[in-house]
Design brief:
Four copies of one chain form a homotetramer. Chain A has about 350 residues and is of the alpha+beta class. Chain A contains seven helices and 19 strands. Chain A has one domain: Chorismate synthase, AroC fold, CATH 3.60.150.10. The two termini of chain A are about 35 Å apart.
């Protein structure tokens, strides 16, 4: 079923394979009148691109976004914004040996089962390359939200077994951009970096956790009962490659809490709620409640690694398989702008929709 | 924004408040030709209803489903199935004192912020009562899936700090129906039961975790990149009241794994994949991969408890608030059929869609 | 495919067969804060119901709408409005002889081909009875639009070969409610009435044309390029039983016009456009242009008539078929509120959406 | 509201302005396994492009489609097909004088009212240029349908006051491609051609009517009650620029028919229905009934003509306006492939969906 669109009022449609000529997208429903800052989109793309440092893949991509429509004199016109990003590094011959083999941990077999054939030149649509398209749309959504003082900040909360122990201050989050692992605490960042280097040297990889926070959100966003704000965010997050779980506020640890401790008490002060805690993660009954929005996303380690794997070929024969040369031992830091992007798209869609909640 | 529908080909639309006359739903796109077993729907509803045992709320509801359309001579006709369930126990006067107060942990304030007014007679749409409608639709979806030998089984994996330590065998899952907490291991179930009784006596509540498994699924279900099967399931699960997180396969623990361990090796045998592990939870690249589908859902404790809370009234004044009389110290066991229902609806929708994947 | 919902922000989902227990619907996305006038809904339903006069079917239905949710203290709460209408006159035994026959002009064969079975008790979903559900939703939409001074008026423009020759003044349209054929010109109405009586006496039926006008519409409604306001209205209109065509403004006669005559010249006066003509029917480029919205809808004659038809039974044998007793020689007057209802739903949906057009 | 997508299972999303760098689209949900014939797509595009002959605009466009994704080794993979067409002839300076004027018959004012600004370089999204994108998607849909022997044929039925008087045989329709006006009857075609030349010489334009027929359709397509096959086709057709009306089968003339004449009698022979007439146009109750599908679409004359118009500028001042040089006196012949394309997309979507109608 057509599954390459996300959003209702602000809708992204995505296309393109990792090893084709280009990838791209269409943003439909972008409100008119935004003075679009293309440099900010590009900056966001640069945070996602491979090859940013020694810890990530050495595959080089200059992810330059080209916007083809929907903008006039630098301002959004309300018509669809079509854009593309060239694939500079799509050496598809690299992949010829994969024609008859299903890589473990990859979507090769699943795509074959679904469509009866597959583009074996690489991940194709299942490659994380498609997330660059999300980043473009998310960067535009963020610019609209920032007009209304809604701000989204994400950072790496854990890599492998190393996790931030203390809650991170809102103001400290931007510090995460000062190091390659995107963790706001420098000491923890150093440990994470070492871990990543270590698994890289082993020809292996590691997973991690990203935390995302949103401030300035109006109370009242979300469309119960099925399109609760957290349900939509869960959909958005788990649609990102390698995401294995998502939790809101106190998340999985809520299961062990008592109700008397879990419930966030609050007081209306000056017409606004002041909360004494945030176990709900800023959403109650599926609707933003005026508290900071908080969620975490878990990533599995990437499976394209030099370490030998036993793979099955299409005829059922076993063979050893290894990714040669470059590999990305931890994609989590590069996924930070993707998380922010999907959060922005999801929130903006509900933000625009709120205008029809009341007469 | 209209958010009370779920699904595309098999679509449920839901309506009704906890304290209105009735709740109901419309299932659009149910395939024709199913010999519908209404008793099986009712049995599923009975597993969800309050008052099943000492550990749950004493509020009594006879949740009798009445089907108004879409069935002829006991067989689905392909036209929409409209159904209702009367609210027998909607004593709305109970709630008069809540008119001017925002209960902590409830959606009172969020609904007020969203719509400018609210139905203060109770949870309204934010009450878990609406999940009875999901159970009806899910029970029908399950009957269709079972024609194709696809089976869904869920159970309580944790209550408070008590969790199942070993992985549960597929065959043992039905044992969970032999005890009130719906945990397949009797010893653990006893501990959970005691914990629940203890928090009830304290006038408090506890959260928990449900695990859900699906067998017999075709490889090839799911619609990347945004409507990945896991993304849709995450959407479905987090749309359920009190769900704070969802994880697939090795879930959050994947973050600490290495890629060499995480990737599930498999071999094609007789045209089918045989997996040596299931960290992916049966989904790769957003598409079912032929392995068992596995996910877990975390619930926060309910916040309607006798224990006093500090609440804010609409004018900002503080007041103490307590739920009098009956309360439900742990809704997790009753949520098991809801998880199954939402899984069934999600999977069936993609199952029907798979028929258009290839020419 | 699930096709029983219409609209995006203001969405109606419909269910129920003509010969079941009841029909009903769910309105999702109705803005909160409307002081709902149920009597006005009922009045609209009464205009649609059979048996209003000698010229329509003698089948009696008291179409009393019951609203089950989404209203609190008489005001819409933003949650879904579920409603039902009992089928009082569903004598299904009347239809036993139709089990093995496909009536010409009816959907019997098409339903059988689509679903492999059919509810032969009557029209089922293909009966015009389902339009009562549309009228309820449309009446609510009209109440919201009227808050913003947007008004919809429809009337019978033609019956058989008798048509209004002059354009009808906006102010004269309500006169159409003073006669049973709903034509604002009394002389023409009389002729139409005679024609209808004549075809009834022959055991036959006749078609007709309805014109619909909308005033007070903001310029700027509609979502090009696919969801142009006229495209959505065409969808809405042709979804009504027995509609064979729809045209906007100068419609089919535009084909014979020259461009110099067709184009509606206008001048901006006081910030508003003043048009010298209305060939566009109030929509340019798929967007309302501030002129009066005008469209016409053609209905075929009903095919359930006493006059003998040659029908084929399911085994291919020919047989003569006749509707006994009562029949409705011209449904066009009763379809007027249905046209208004679908226009209201369509326009309101775009009206609510306009709030996200600009930042 | 995002309105640039059409279809559910086979979904086209469109972008690009007439005077931007390029236009393009994304087809999501194209079934895997189609051996795509790009030359056939191009041939269809060539039938739509301007400058095909003396009777159409002299504006030259080489509408070369470039496909960027979704195809591997010439075969569709099931992933989204992204494509673009360069705008070769987008001389935007031509349009500088239009910055402050609202052209009559154009969407200038409506766009300004909707979005608060507009791209005045030309029609932008309201230009018929966007229909080239539809033709690409439609050409792909037609190739899939032709695998199942479903064929779509359209032709010009009327230009100005000149219309075909006799019904056209299915076999004769391809003759329409032998003349520039795309009318299958050579004599009528000659008259039409003369009329078009005459209005061109006057600096004026004319409208016309296209008829479309579909053969080989399964009985059973369409999704009542709102997504009836005719309702979806009406939506698709009226979404095309300059379409003022659509009618099915006997269409507007049905209004004057009696039911006894209107109803199409049929007999089941060899399991298939044999109809004695086709007033229904091949659709009963919103579902294809096995008869040939027939509908007609009316186009208004284009309003970009040399003949002087009185236009209002944005400040309300009146001015005379004329299109200099080239103009297209009748776009109807070029619209034939657009009608076919939208018919193909609409029918294919329901064709794919039919697979979920029954268990």
């Amino acid at each position: 079923m057509a599954g390459n669109s996300f959003g209702t009022l602000f809708k992204l449609t995505s296309f393109g394979e990792s090893h084709g000529e280009l990838i791209g997208g269409v943003i439909d429903g972008c409100p008119a009148g935004l003075n679009l800052d293309v440099a900010r989109i590009q900056a966001k793309l640069d945070r996602r691109k491979p090859g940013q440092s020694g810890i990530s893949s050495e595959r080089k991509e200059e992810d330059l976004v080209r916007i083809h429509s929907g903008i006039f004199d630098g301002i959004t016109t309300g018509t669809p914004i079509g854009f593309t990003i060239l694939n500079k590094d799509n050496r598809s011959k690299d992949y010829a040996h994969l024609k008859d083999v299903y890589r473990p941990g990859h979507a090769d077999y699943a795509y074959q089962a679904k469509y009866g054939l597959r583009d074996y030149r690489g991940g194709g649509r299942s490659s994380a390359r498609e997330t660059a398209v999300r980043v473009v749309a998310g960067a535009i959504a963020e610019q609209i939200l920032s007009v209304f003082n809604i701000e989204i900040r994400a950072f790496v909360q854990g890599v492998g077994k190393i996790s931030l122990e203390k809650e991170v201050d809102w103001e400290s989050i931007p510090d995460s951009e000062n190091n390659t692992v995107r963790c706001p605490d420098l000491k923890t960042a150093e440990k994470m970096k070492k871990l990543i280097e270590s698994v890289r040297n082993e020809g292996d990889s590691t997973g991690g956790v990203i935390e995302c926070r949103i401030r300035g959100l109006f109370a009242g966003l979300g469309s119960p009962v099925f399109d609760k704000l957290n349900a939509l965010l869960a959909h958005a997050m788990v649609s990102i490659n390698a995401v294995k779980g998502v939790e809101f506020g106190s998340g999985f640890s809520s299961a062990a809490m008592k109700g008397s401790r879990y419930r966030d008490e609050f007081r209306i002060e000056g017409g606004e709620p002041k909360y004494s805690s945030n176990n709900s993660g800023g959403i109650t009954g599926g609707i933003s409640n005026g508290n900071e929005l908080v969620f975490r996303v878990a990533f599995n380690p990437v499976t394209s690694i030099p370490k030998l794997a036993k793979a099955s070929n299409t005829s059922g024969e076993s063979q050893s398989l290894s990714v040669q040369g470059r590999h990305d031992p931890c994609v989590v830091p590069r996924a930070v702008p993707v998380i922010e992007a999907m959060a922005a798209i999801t929130v903006l869609d509900q933000f625009l929709a709120r205008r029809s909640d009341k007469i």
